[in-house]
Specification:
By secondary structure, the chain is α+β, with helices and mostly antiparallel strands. It has one domain: Chitinase A, domain 3 (Roll). About 20% of the residues lie in helices and about 25% in strands. The protein has five helices and eleven strands; from the N terminus they run ααββββββββαααβββ. The strands form three sheets. Strands 3, 4, 6, 7, 8, 10 and 11 form a seven-stranded antiparallel beta sheet that branches. Strand 1 and strand 2 form a beta hairpin. The longest helix has 18 residues. It is globular and about 55 Å long. The termini are far apart.
Length: about 240
């Protein structure tokens, strides 16, 4: 019996001594410093802009290297992307903006048709975005714009109840980018014609901070690519505070 206990103790000791070398294959890799994370994000965004284009309805599509069918399309990097000081990249799709659009207020109720994904970038895959996860996709889903999302504006009443800060819910980079667009005055049932792209690096999203788990997902270190159209913004009423 004593030999059995000694054997178990020896195995445990060996396991513990090797644990520092163990790599969990299901754990998401994470670079150590935020400066490296930011650099990787910026490089990945630049590569993303060169490897994707907008189709006839404004949806982001990846170029297929083995097919000449998409060669005539302009890269996102050729559509005059605007990089903001925060690292957010904004692309207003040519010919797809409202002729008499409405300015989008910081506390407005918005309706958004979108295909939005979160991407990781850790530098171990050539800095390319990887592990895409859907954040919101009404284009391929319900076909109905999402109204009043908390990641654009969180109600003060919700903050009071949750005892959280705005940054727990809101994606600051999305708010920043949306200021450069105007909303359409059109019926949501009309066929969408996506008006642009907002790419938010992780530092302008949730970074490594505690945040609301939208879709039950951890958005830590994720970059967001919003591909969208905004409908019928309006001033927020007192009952919606």
């Amino acid at each position: 019996m004593k030999k059995a206990f000694l054997y178990i103790a020896l195995v445990a000791t060996v396991f513990i001594s090797c644990s520092d070398d163990y790599v969990d294959p299901y754990k998401i890799r994470e670079v150590k410093t935020l400066s490296t994370q930011n650099s990787n994000d910026d490089k990945a965004i630049a590569e993303y802009l060169d490897k994707h284009y907008l189709d006839d309805q404004g949806k982001i599509q990846a170029f297929i290297a083995t097919s000449p069918d998409d060669d005539a399309n302009k890269k996102l990097s050729e559509l005059s992307p605007q990089k903001l000081p925060s690292g957010v990249v904004v692309i207003a799709r040519p010919g797809a903006q409202p002729t008499e659009g409405k300015t989008i207020g910081a506390t407005d109720v918005i309706s958004i048709m979108q295909r939005t994904y979160g991407y990781l970038s850790d530098g171990e895959d050539g800095n390319l975005f990887h592990t895409p996860y859907p954040f919101a996709n009404t284009v391929d889903g319900s076909g109905t714009p999402e109204s009043d999302p908390a990641y654009y504006y969180i109600r003060p009443s919700t903050l009071e109840k949750s005892e959280q800060t705005k940054s727990y819910y809101e994606i600051e980079g999305f708010q920043e980018g949306l200021k450069l667009f105007k909303s359409f005055s059109k019926d949501p049932s009309e066929l969408y014609n996506l008006q642009g792209v907002i790419i938010v690096p992780s530092r302008a999203a949730f970074a490594r901070d505690t945040h609301f788990p939208y879709q039950g997902t951890n958005w830590r270190n994720r970059n967001f690519v919003f591909n969208f159209q905004i409908y019928n913004t309006r001033a927020r009423e007192a009952s919606e505070q």
